[in-house]
Design goal:
With 713 residues, the protein is α/β, with parallel strands linked by helices. Helices cover 50% and strands 13% of the residues. It contains 30 helices and 22 strands. The strands form five sheets. The chain has an eight-stranded mixed sheet, with helices on both faces. Strands 1-2-3-5-7-9-12 form a seven-stranded mixed sheet, with helices on both faces. The chain has a three-stranded mixed sheet with strand order 8-10-11. The longest helix has 23 residues, at 285-307. The protein starts with a strand and ends in a 6-residue tail after the last helix.
């Protein structure tokens, strides 16, 4: 009946099947060309002599949704263009929905965004057991744009729809059935799903199922009283603000849209939906989050280019069974790797096993693992005091004390014990090329830098030394991918990428406080205002002041002059007074448990008195000054890392800072943020801060780009 590149219509007795099967791609994407074909399909179906329609995919997944890459051009075009485009899409979807016969959609595999909205055009939906269904647009700073905000409340009810729309969560088939989004779940391995859909159409034609009532219900106002609507929206607003806050407007715009459209017919409601999407786009957050998404996709593509060249790690060695070693052993064993965990004494092994046991016990307590599964993971960890157990490992991660002489001795011994293994150091401050000098086969050595806590942090830096082979890097990247984490490959330098760029931020904080800045005001400005998960003082307390002091000293050695340890070193003063941060309850803040046992920071007179004795007279700094004094040194160092080839692209750098430090995603990443300011404007702002010393020295790369009118993206 119709044959297109994305959609086909085939006859099935007195019925027809609208088949989504993109001939150009592995997944079904609702790009413009596909939507134009869907419009042509609507025209064919409107004149077809059929009694019903099955909507399905001919791929292992239903549809990944719209073409996200195309969003940014639409955002730039402005409100009028957005509304005009969506009016056309809505008209196409409405024509399918309004067809004068019953429709059943079969949702299989992944169904997201516009694909889920396509399934909503049917009066009935069935899911295969492998289905995962989501409306993830809110995570990109927008909202479902193809009618989902209008149809969802009319299909599943207001409360359930708000959960789907404002969280963007993925729902498996049983939960989608519980939420009444689908009418049945079918095991496609045992039952012919198309025949089941045909049977439903038979029931509709026979009058056993009132499909017309369902079709009509989607076009009417919500069947709730004003009071019921108000209560549902009010509760959802509170939850959305708690989770998203003020910096992510999409959930709030979704709630406004649903509230305004609740009393309207479908077409009026869709008009409100279009305005809501335009408002999301105008916020700028949507473009930033789409940029993050596309950068993440680029990083994943680069990861695949490495992993195609390397075998999986099946047997891993972890040397140094402390908190970090135990964490590495846990995440690796949890991903079905056999782990040999070696230490020089039983106490060390016990600490590593205790760490793994603690993390697993939490999984059991939360119902995420059974006791049997916990046992399986622990059984994959083999504690040992003997080097001989490492003989068959294919990758070994050294995680011993951060002392170059100790590491060199350990690494040299590993070459003898496991001659066929790739060896990596988990160092956070020592250069890989320096450690490699003690090795006979430096080409088999690299850095694999985990962030603490290992099980939570999604980023892992893979560091290429001067003599590291590409095969070694590929092996390391493949291992990190096996863990479900994001590997960023960087070239060797002091602090690598993340710590090198985070240290200037800490040094700038030190200098601002010494100049009379108030810690509480600085933290509030950078967390509540700029959007960091926490302010710099609390961050340093969480990292540990002894760790921060060590990091500053390391950067002083690597980059003397620009990143020198400050004359008035608050980190050192705190450590000398046994104020180590959260780990011992005393740092810039006092860390005490609340009535629920949660550790909370509180102002501390002792710390304030210590700081006052080392600082200038207290003075007030406005939010812009605080923000620029802290962010400029970080931005400058990141530009140097790009220009020196430490990181390969702005996209990788931005993902590294978001995943490794919690840089606020709604700002799009550090390089994206600089582009939004404008490089010429950034230089103009930065000139005001040059008198504050080497930390604020403008990089040549920034000045050159600004003069040439360039951008990073």
């Amino acid at each position: 009946m119709y044959q297109g590149q994305s959609f086909q219509i085939v006859e099935h007795g007195s019925y027809a099947e609208l088949v989504f099967n993109d001939q150009q791609d592995k997944v079904n994407t609702l790009r413009d060309s596909a939507l134009k074909e869907l419009e042509a399909c609507a025209e064919v179906l409107e004149s077809a002599k059929i009694d019903g329609l099955v909507i399905r995919s001919d791929k292992p997944l239903f549809s990944a949704g719209a073409d996200i890459k195309a969003f940014r051009g639409l955002f730039e075009a402005g409100e009028e263009a957005i509304e005009a485009y969506l009016s056309w899409v809505h008209s196409v979807y409405n024509r399918i929905e309004d067809l004068p016969f019953p429709k059943v959609a079969i949702i299989n595999g992944v169904a997201a965004g516009g694909g889920v909205e396509l399934s909503m055009l049917a009066e009935y939906r069935v899911a295969t057991t492998d289905a995962k269904i989501s409306l993830p647009e809110v995570k990109l700073g927008i909202m479902p744009g193809y009618g989902g905000v209008t149809r969802m409340p009319r299909i599943v009810g207001l409360d359930t729809s708000l959960q789907w729309l404002t969280t963007g969560k993925n729902f498996k088939a049983p939960k989608a059935l519980e939420h009444r989004f689908v009418d049945g779940v079918i095991n496609a391995a045992k039952i012919d799903v198309v025949e089941e859909a045909i049977a439903m159409l038979d029931s509709c034609v026979a009058g056993d199922l009132n499909w017309q009532a369902r079709q009509d219900e989607k076009k009417q106002p919500l069947a709730l009283s004003q009071y019921e609507q108000m209560m549902s929206i009010s509760v959802a607003r509170g939850m959305a603000f708690k989770v998203a806050g003020k910096n992510y407007p999409a959930p709030h715009i979704i709630l406004d849209t649903v509230e305004k459209a609740a009393t309207m017919q479908r077409d009026e409601a869709l008009a409100i939906e279009r305005k809501g999407i335009a408002k999301c786009a105008a916020s700028g957050v949507a473009d930033a989050l789409v940029s993050v998404f596309l950068s993440d996709m680029q990083v994943k593509a680069k990861t695949r280019s490495f992993t195609a060249k390397a075998d999986k790690t099946t047997e891993l060695g972890v040397i140094g069974a402390g908190i970090m070693g135990g964490g590495i052993a846990y995440v690796s064993a949890d991903r079905n790797m056999d782990v040999v965990m070696k230490d020089i004494n039983k106490a060390g092994l016990q600490l590593g096993l205790s760490e793994a046991n603690k993390l697993l016990s939490k999984q059991v307590d939360k119902g995420r693992k059974t006791a049997s599964q916990m046992g399986d993971v622990l059984n994959r960890i083999q504690p040992t005091l003997q080097d001989a157990a490492l003989e068959n490992t294919d990758l070994i991660i050294e995680a011993v004390v951060e002392n170059p002489k100790v590491k060199e001795i350990v690494l040299g011994g590993l070459e003898e014990s496991a001659p066929n293994a790739v060896i990596a150091s988990n160092t956070s401050t020592l250069m890989i090329s320096g450690l490699a000098k003690s090795l006979k086969r430096p080409e088999n050595f690299c850095g694999i830098h985990f962030f603490n806590p290992v099980h939570r942090m999604p980023l892992v830096e893979v560091i290429r030394g001067e003599k590291t082979s590409e095969e070694t890097i590929a092996k390391a990247v493949r291992y990190v991918e096996q863990l479900g984490k994001t590997p960023i490959v960087v070239n060797d330098c002091g602090g690598f990428l993340v710590n090198r760029c985070l240290t200037p931020y800490m040094l700038a904080f030190n200098q601002l406080v010494v100049d009379g800045g108030d810690i509480a005001t600085i933290d509030k400005t950078m967390s509540k205002g700029f959007g960091w998960p926490m302010g710099p003082a609390l961050l340093i307390d969480v990292i540990g002041l002894d760790t921060a002091e060590h990091c500053v000293d390391s950067m002083d050695a690597a980059f003397p002059g620009r990143l020198s340890a400050p004359e008035v070193n608050l980190f050192k003063a705190m450590v000398e007074n046994n104020r180590l941060g959260q780990k011992n309850g005393a740092g810039f803040y006092q860390h005490v448990a609340d009535h629920r046992g949660r550790i909370k920071p509180a102002a501390c007179e002792t710390a304030q008195s210590l700081i006052a004795g080392l600082s200038k007279e207290a003075q007030s700094f406005d939010a812009d000054t605080i923000t620029m004094r802290l962010m400029l040194p970080m931005m400058f160092e990141m530009i140097r890392c790009l220009d020196e080839g430490i990181v390969a692209s702005p996209q990788e750098a931005d993902i590294a800072m978001i995943y490794g430090t919690g840089f606020p995603p709604f700002r799009g990443g550090l390089f994206y943020y600089m582009d939004q300011i404008g490089l010429a404007k950034l230089v103009e702002i930065a000139r005001q801060y040059e008198p504050f010393g080497p930390l604020y020295e403008l990089p040549e790369g920034l000045v050159k780009r600004a003069n040439n009118g360039e951008t990073f993206y």
